[in-house]
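Note on ligand handling. Small-molecule inputs were canonicalized before submission; formal charges were left as drawn, and no protonation-state enumeration was performed. Where a ligand contained multiple stereocentres, the stereochemistry in the source SMILES was retained. For magnesium ion, this procedure yielded the string shown in the input block below.
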Amino acid sequence: MSPGRGDREPSRSAPIKTRDVVYQQTRGIEIDPRRLRERRIITPSMHDPAEAAYKVLRTTVLQKMRANGWNTLGVTGARQGNGKTLTTINLAISLAREMNQTVLVADFDLCHPALARYLVDERVPGMSDYLRGERSISEILFNPGIERLVILPGNEPMADSSEKLSSPLVRDLVGELKTRYPDRFVLFDLPPVLAGDDVMAFAPNVDAFLLVVEDGVTTKEDLRRAYETLGATKLIGTVLNKAQGVHETYAYT
Ligand SMILES: Nc1ncnc2c1ncn2[C@@H]1O[C@H](COP(=O)(O)OP(=O)(O)OP(=O)(O)O)[C@@H](O)[C@H]1O
Ligand SMILES: [Mg+2]
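Structure output:
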């Protein structure tokens, strides 16, 4: 069900169960499992060695987040193409399978939104519509046929992304996403940390960061600069993506 244009989501005082949020508040888009497999997205029927590595990543992330009472995680990398979006989606799927919580994945890579393209071919309403005031969040969220997973897609690339990411509008949106439903876990698919000041601008909105490192591509110097930019306090881990010479695709340090 998609509420009408301009509708507000129910007030915070109204008791809402997670299931209701997914299945009544959020419209569903059925996605062909073949599409997911082609794009290396883990599916229940897939016996992929990467899945085991994502479980390790999931458990490590969950332990660190729970120990600190955190529920918002920004996923970034040093440069473009390191695997941020794919890691975000697969981590979210793995989290949604394990938890009784809703996991929301939000595309905050405003310059190069690509999250939706992993899941659907058609243009779906997204962040740029919201930021232009043309759509409510209720109209943008969708469930991709995976239980407890909700997607907040991007759509058109936007200029002045760092100004937008540090704006009160985005701050209020993130506040709403993370507090409206207390048992929700929010993952943000972010731009590369060294590509500009977007990640810095958005940093106050997240509890923690995960850094995706591309094996053989991310240089030591980029890694050093990424660590420096993110700050030791917010960085909870590093994912080695496209790891060469190991059975699993991912390792976690
Ligand atoms: N572990 C992996 N094994 C093989 N291919 C991968 C892996 N991770 C990502 N890729 C591929 O690398 C490409 C870039 O991945 P992805 O879109 O996740 O990167 P990104 O860091 O989000 O890029 P951008 O900065 O453009 O947003 C995609 O074609 C994706 O399928
Ligand atoms: Mg991406």
